[in-house]
């Protein structure tokens, strides 16, 4: 389970600092971009090779739970981002609000959603299925939402080229990994640390190139300290609303305690691993530093809050078991 301040969080902070002090540009930036694209392709190939069909089938039949999670992820979250615009925009710059809106359209996490569900004694097979389905559908749904909603609120208009880029850079490598699983699946399962390093390494590369371009374009000069403080408040507001809503929905819809935990952790979180590579594709030609900054902060906040919640659920379960 992710720690409150793990090595990857420190690496993210160091990468942002490096890009702020020594941003890459010119031919160096082109080389980094090429290497980043290759790393992202490898990342999704390994995700495809890692995905177990048996684990997905084990939880696939719980369709009411999955629909609830997907509705929270791809309907409720974007709706809140839009409806709260009058409240959120005074707290952040227009560029950061665009990043917040993009954050609202992303799929759920996979690894941490499953880890927190397991720790809290929730329905782990259903969590595996819901989180996986969210990420797979996000490859299609997120670009559509970006095109329909972000373009209507001052963002860059999306076109068929962006959708094809998603297919080429993300979906095709994933499908290739699924096909190759019969030959390399066992090796990938035995070397899960490799996927972790590719996952984190590709994110760090994208963050470095993104923030390098943003710093050169004047990100920090255009983002006052008050806007950063406001962004923390915006992320906390969004996460709090989703945690409360998913918790209420689980109870009102009559789900078991284990399913309520699954809905809580899978329906309230957003994927940094999917969001950063997608931003690079969907916002190609634009400085995406301000786009991914809200996601990076939200990622850390959700880990800290969900870790505390999972520990609380676990302690409650152990206390009930001893009673």
UniProtKB/TrEMBL annotation:
It comes from the Bacteria. Keywords: Membrane, Signal, Transmembrane, Transmembrane helix. Residues 1-19 form the signal peptide. Coiled coil: none annotated. The chain crosses the membrane at residues 29-46, 67-84, 96-116, 128-151, 163-180, 201-220, 226-249, 288-310. This is Bile acid:sodium symporter family protein. The lineage of its organism: Bacteria, Pseudomonadati, Pseudomonadota, Betaproteobacteria, Neisseriales.
């Amino acid at each position: 389970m992710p720690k409150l301040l793990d090595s990857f969080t420190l690496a993210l902070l160091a990468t942002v600092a490096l890009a702020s002090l020594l941003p890459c540009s010119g031919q160096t930036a082109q080389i980094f971009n090429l290497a980043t694209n290759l790393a992202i392709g490898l990342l999704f190939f390994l995700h495809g090779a890692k995905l177990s069909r048996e684990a997905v089938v084990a939880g696939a039949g719980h369709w009411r739970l999955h629909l609830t999670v997907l509705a929270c992820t791809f309907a409720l979250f974007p709706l809140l981002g839009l409806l709260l615009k009058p409240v959120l925009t005074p707290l952040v710059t227009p560029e950061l609000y665009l990043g917040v809106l993009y954050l609202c359209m992303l799929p759920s996490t996979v690894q941490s959603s499953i880890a927190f569900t397991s720790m809290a004694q929730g329905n782990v097979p259903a969590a595996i299925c819901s989180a996986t389905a969210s990420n797979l559908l996000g490859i299609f749904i997120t670009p559509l939402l970006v095109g329909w909603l972000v373009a209507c609120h001052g963002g860059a208009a999306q076109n068929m080229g962006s959708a094809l880029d998603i297919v080429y850079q993300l979906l095709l490598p994933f499908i290739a990994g699924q096909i190759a699983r019969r030959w390399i699946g066992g090796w990938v399962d035995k070397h899960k640390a490799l996927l972790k390093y590719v996952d984190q390494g590709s994110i760090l590369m994208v963050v470095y190139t993104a923030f390098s371009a943003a710093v050169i374009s004047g990100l920090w000069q255009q983002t006052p300290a008050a806007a950063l403080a406001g962004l923390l408040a915006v992320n906390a507001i969004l996460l709090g609303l989703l945690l409360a809503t998913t918790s209420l929905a689980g109870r009102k819809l009559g789900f078991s305690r284990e399913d309520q935990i699954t809905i809580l952790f899978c329906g309230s979180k957003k994927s940094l691993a999917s969001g950063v590579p997608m931003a690079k594709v969907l916002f190609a030609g634009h400085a995406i530093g301000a786009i991914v900054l809200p996601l990076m902060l939200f990622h850390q906040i959700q880990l800290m809050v969900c870790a505390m919640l999972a520990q609380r659920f676990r302690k409650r379960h152990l206390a009930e078991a001893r009673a």
